[in-house]
Amino acid sequence: MAAKSVLATFTPGQLKTQEVEIQVEYCGICHSDLTMLDNKWGLTQYPFVPGHEVIGTVAAVGDAVTKVRVGQRVGLGWFSRSCLQCNCCVSGDDHLCLTGEGMIVGRYGGFAQKVRAHQNWAIPLPAALDPATAGPLLCGGITVFNPLVQFDVKPTDRVGVIGIGGLGHLALQFLRAWGCDVTAFSSNPDKEVEARQMGANHFIDSRDPQALKAVANSFDLIISTVDADLDWDTYIAALRPKGRLHLVGVVPKVSFQSLPFILGQKSISASPVGSSATISRMLDFAAQHRIEAITELFSFDQVNEAIAKLRNGKPRYRLVLKHT
Fold first, then answer.
1. Which of 61, 166, 263, 320 is the most buried (most CB within 10 A)?
2. What is the pLDDT of residues 185-212, one digit of tens each?
3. CB within 8 A of 182, min separation 6: which ones?
């Protein structure tokens, strides 16, 4: 039986010079929160406070904070701190900092009244974004937006998205706004209408082998958002020469034949979230194109109900907690 969340108090100590204290208004519930709650990655320290899709207002700032001000609405995602000195940090990839601090790794996260982070990771929220639905952009959104920037995806590219869930439904929206020809792969045919509304030009039932074979040599990029092992050779065959299969879902194992990669000069890659600069760019892009997560709202005292819904795989498409 899964453990239940209970109300607790803690004292965060003195605010550091470059820290920001955020009064939490909303916090999304990501599948990674559930994974950490169950310690499936072996990173969890108990007592554990989940939450890394925070939207709130700045309540206090340290003496050296210059990037945000008290009263400003900000978003806070997977990272709460990076070293600012390593090669990754100084070259603009602060999300790859080897000593970066995860919001819910070894510290308390956003299922709280207030949360703290380094000022670099408290990202100002554009006024055009609804704070009630913006939280999932700070993790799910940046996870699927980052590859578009990293790999210089073109508006003329044909892109497939495997899995139309919490990540996939955002990927469809970003790709449509990016100008791409977008195909949704889903094992649930009931999602076709929604997938097309969210941005898919085409829909393929991923359980239909003939439908998958029919799109061989079709895609410049396929983004996989799922956490299950698939027939990867079939998706690799769907790539054009120089095409890329990119993983953002944590799959247990990826097994494939190497020859199609060699003959087609294809590639496979993966990425986590994105840099603080890319998060800011993503939020601006979302505001400009009216992209938002499809959410279901719960009050913080309904947290166990919300977690149970996520655990049972029923959300469409993201869950968000709200302070009343």
1. 166
2. 999 999 999 999 999 999 999 999 999 9
3. 159, 160, 161, 172, 175, 176, 199, 200, 201, 202
User: Rounded CA gap, 60 and 53, in Å?
Assistant: 19
Q: How far apart, in whole angstroms, are the C-alpha atoms of residue 318 and residue 171?
A: 13
Which residues does residue 20 pair with via DSSP β-bridges, in sequence order?
Answer: 61, 117
Residue 59, helix vs strand vs coil: strand
Task: Please give the Cα distance from 36 to 40 (Å, whole number).
Answer: 6
Distance CA 214, CA 11 (A): 59
Burial class (CB in 10 A: 0-12, 13-18, 19+), 295: buried
Radius of gyration of the chain from its Cα atoms, rounded to whole angstroms: 20
SS (H, E, C) 295-321: EEEEEHHHHHHHHHHHHCCCCCCEEEE
For the chain, domains (ranges, CATH) are 19-139+274-322 (3.90.180.10), 142-270 (3.40.50.720)
3-state helix/strand/coil string of 237-254: HCEEEEEEEEECCCCCCC
Average pLDDT over residues 128-148: 98
Q: Are 201 and 182 in contact (CB under 8 A)?
A: yes
Judged by DSSP in three states, 177 sits in helix
What is the spatial distance between Cα 12 and Cα 116, in angstroms, rounded to a whole number? Answer: 8
- Degrees to nearest 5, angle at CA 121 with 115 and 127: 90
- Residue 58, SS3? strand
Interhelix angle 276-289/140-150, rounded to 10 degrees, is 100
What is the tens place of the pLDDT at every residue in 285-295?
A: 999 999 999 99
Q: Give the per-residue pLDDT at 190.
A: 94
pTM to 2 decimal places: 0.95
pLDDT of residue 14: 93
Quote the distance between the C-alpha of residue 144 and its chain's center: 6
Render pLDDT for 253-307 as a digit per residue (tens, 0 to 9): 888 899 999 999 999 999 999 999 999 999 999 999 999 999 999 999 999 999 9
